[in-house]
Design brief:
Blueprint: H1 8-40, H2 46-67, H3 77-93, H4 102-113, H5 124-132, H6 138-144, H7 157-171
């Protein structure tokens, strides 16, 4: 056996890792292509919404695949997801969801407002209301400031107090 020759037992895992890397690359290209089309589309068009969905599904597949393999590390994935959710929020603000049925509308809000539920005290309903107001992630919520929360439609005094308390605790 030559020194360069790889033992048979090492070949299989490397081939599997290579196959997974190729699959991740293909998914990333699909997400990138869809995002570029969505960004170039008229923000009121169904094309933009459809491409956003393609990108979102590809990112979900990437997250699922990478979580199944400890050799895959994708720290940028959260940033990309945040960008997709911000684009979704912009499309929402521009009226791209106006033609959706109630179930599709709620599913869209739930899918793209989910990052907000990472703050203790924000559930799905509050996340939807914040998203509808133009806030799609916790960074935007923190930047907004506690007094600006009064402008968010549908948040009662208890919810506002809870969010303000959690944000203040985080800032410490």
């Amino acid at each position: 056996m030559h020194d360069d020759a790889m033992p048979q037992s090492d070949t299989a895992p490397r081939e599997e890792q290579h196959a997974i890397a190729l699959q991740l690359q293909q998914l990333a290209r699909r997400a990138r292509r869809a995002l570029l089309v969505a960004l170039a589309s008229d923000t009121h068009s169904q094309d933009a919404m459809g491409e956003l969905q393609v990108a979102d599904e590809a990112l979900t597949e990437i997250a699922e695949l990478s979580s199944q393999h400890d050799f895959v590390a994708l720290p940028e994935l959260d940033d990309v997801r945040r960008g997709v959710d911000r684009l979704a929020c912009q499309l929402y603000q521009d009226g791209a969801c106006d033609g959706l049925g109630e179930a599709e509308h709620e599913a869209f809000l739930d899918r793209h407002a989910r990052a907000l539920t990472a703050l203790d005290g924000i559930g799905p309903i509050t996340a939807r209301r914040l998203f509808a107001h133009g806030i799609s992630d916790l960074d935007q919520l923190r930047e907004l400031g506690p007094d600006a929360l009064d402008d968010v439609t549908g948040l009662n005094a208890a919810t506002l107090a809870r969010i303000r308390t959690r944000l203040a605790e985080e800032a410490k």
